[in-house]
Amino acid sequence: MKRAIVFGATGGIGQAICTDLANSGWSLYLHYNQDEQKASNMVQRYSQLYPQQDFIPIKLSFLTDNKGLMEFVNSLLPINAVVFSQGITDYTFLSDQDLNKIDQLVQVNLNTPIKLTSLLESLLIKNDFSRIVYLGSVYGGNGSALEAVYSSTKAGLSRFAQSYAREVASANLTVNVIAPGAVDTKMNALLSSETMAEVKEEIPLGRLAKGTDISYWVRTLLDPNANYLTGQTIYVSGGWLI
Ligand SMILES: NC(=O)c1ccc[n+]([C@@H]2O[C@H](COP(=O)([O-])OP(=O)(O)OC[C@H]3O[C@@H](n4cnc5c(N)ncnc54)[C@H](OP(=O)(O)O)[C@@H]3O)[C@@H](O)[C@H]2O)c1
User: Fold this and answer.
1) Residue 86 CA to ligand 1 centre (angstroms)
2) Which Gene3D superfamilies does the annotation name (predicted)?
3) Top-level CATH class of 3-236?
């Protein structure tokens, strides 16, 4: 049985990823931070649709200390794939940004994913093939004003993935980043409708991405045949900012 853990399963993109993976025969750990109800609804739905697969909700704040991260990883069954689709942002000028918020952005988007990757490695490389996918952003390749810290975390993920991919390639563990443009999820709910209309104007494809536009690429990277692509950042942005 192939099993993946999807961090941020309760997010707009995470839900699409879980639906696609469940439909492709994956058993899943569905990670949530606060939205226990959504995670348990997803588990119920998938369990009815795919009774031969396992679906397990699992809670973790990425603001947890190192001991908490180790306990979390020690509680897991073997896995073939990890998808990091959690994330937070904050739209503000750097000089107005609360210093604690800067710590949180770096911890949730970059530091904890790196630490979990380190802790999960021994579970992953026991398999014939294994995969890690991080959700990056076009802003990781093309920094955005008012999201300087967010952009730096996403750029950091791309370089981390490239470097780490070279360490583990011989163990058949591929490591890649799917970097969306603007996706229609609650992460963008902070922006006014005027700002969103302006963003849409700038996207060559003329629309925001749906979760499924992103999950398609995650599912494809998790396919056992996708074993010769590693260390890459793939921009899925409708042609925007690339
Ligand atoms: N939406 C976009 O336009 C866009 C564009 C480019 C890249 N991305 C990236 O794609 C990924 C998914 O974005 P999304 O749009 O699906 O976001 P979203 O709908 O806002 O979902 C965010 C997810 O992160 C989890 N989360 C929040 N704080 C957390 C914490 N402290 N510890 C652990 N998990 C936490 C949430 O869990 P709970 O809901 O359970 O609390 C939720 O599952 C992110 O990495 C984001 O940066 C998004």
Assistant:
1) 4
2) NAD(P)-binding Rossmann-like Domain
3) alpha beta
Q: Which residues pair with 133 in a beta bridge?
A: 83, 176
pLDDT reported for residue 149: 98
152 within ligand 1 shell (Cβ under 6 A):
no
Ranges of each domain in the chain:
3-236
Segment 137-143 shows an average pLDDT of 97
What does the alpha-carbon distance between residue 56 and residue 27 come to, in Å, rounded to a whole number? Answer: 8
**Which is the closest atom of ligand 1 to the Cα of 154?**
47
Taking only the tens place, the pLDDT of each residue in 215-230 is 999 999 999 999 999 9
Distances (CA, A) of 3 to 14, 45, 91, 191, 194: 16, 17, 35, 36, 42
Please work out whether the CB of residue 111 comes within 6 Å of at least one atom of ligand 1. Answer: no
- Average pLDDT (20-44) is 98
**Nearest protein Cα to ligand 1, atom 18:** 11
